[in-house]
Amino acid sequence: MNKNFLLSEAPIIAKEIIKNSTSKIILFHGDMGVGKTTLIKEICKTLGTEDLISSPTFSIVNEYITSNDETIFHFDFYRIDNEEEVYNIGVEDYFDSNHWCLIEWPSVVENLLPLENVNVYLTSLEDGQRNIQIN
Ligand SMILES: Nc1ncnc2c1ncn2[C@@H]1O[C@H](COP(=O)(O)OP(=O)(O)O)[C@@H](O)[C@H]1O
Ligand SMILES: [Mg+2]
């Protein structure tokens, strides 16, 4: 997928990501403010959670439960200084759990990431739209 979209279209994009995703581990790449958390919120809504979604600020991971009793783990590695910190929280168990893992700033923990994943690349366009590429 390679598309430009407006904020108002984020729910549609979120649905497409879920529908086309070949893995429950989705890596969100892109600069601060590009819309990673916004899309993750929409994905969580689509999967059926009423929880308030915000980036894990004081922890590395937030956990949400959907109305179908599915578990979603939401990671934000922005504030991580080294991979050991992440390894020490037992991140592999989360990745191996077969639950949804939606990950912001995955490049910070490159060596810990599972091989099977989907990459979402977001960039800002001059007119305020965002470009999304998935592979
Ligand atoms: N097309 C778009 N998709 C997502 N966010 C958008 C879009 N256009 C504007 N925005 C705005 O950009 C900001 C993205 O913030 P956020 O999702 O927290 O980014 P990140 O998690 O990548 O740092 C929000 O204020 C959102 O309203
Ligand atoms: Mg964010």
Quick structural summary:
With 135 residues, this protein is of the alpha/beta class.
The dominant shape is: globular
Largest beta-sheet details: 7 strands, mixed
What is the third-level CATH name, the topology? Rossmann fold
Distance N to C terminus: 7 Å
H/E series, N to C? EHEHEEHHEEE
DSSP helix count?
4
CATH homologous superfamily label: P-loop containing nucleotide triphosphate hydrolases
CATH class: Alpha Beta
Bound molecules: adenosine-5'-diphosphate, magnesium ion
Strand order of the largest sheet: 1-7-6-2-5-4-3
Output the radius of gyration: 14 Å
Can you offer a commentary on this structure?
With 135 residues, this protein is of the alpha/beta class. The protein has one domain: Rossmann fold (3-Layer(aba) Sandwich). It contains four helices and seven strands, in the order βαβαββααβββ. The chain has helices spanning 10-20, 36-47, 83-88, 91-95, and strands at 2-5, 25-29, 61-65, 71-76, 100-104, 118-124, 130-134. α1 (10-20) crosses α2 (36-47). A seven-stranded mixed sheet has the order 1-7-6-2-5-4-3, with helices on one face. The chain binds adenosine-5'-diphosphate and magnesium ion (MG). Residues 5-7, 10, 30, 32-38, 104, 128-130 line the site of adenosine-5'-diphosphate. Residues 36-37, 55, 76, 104 line the site of magnesium ion.
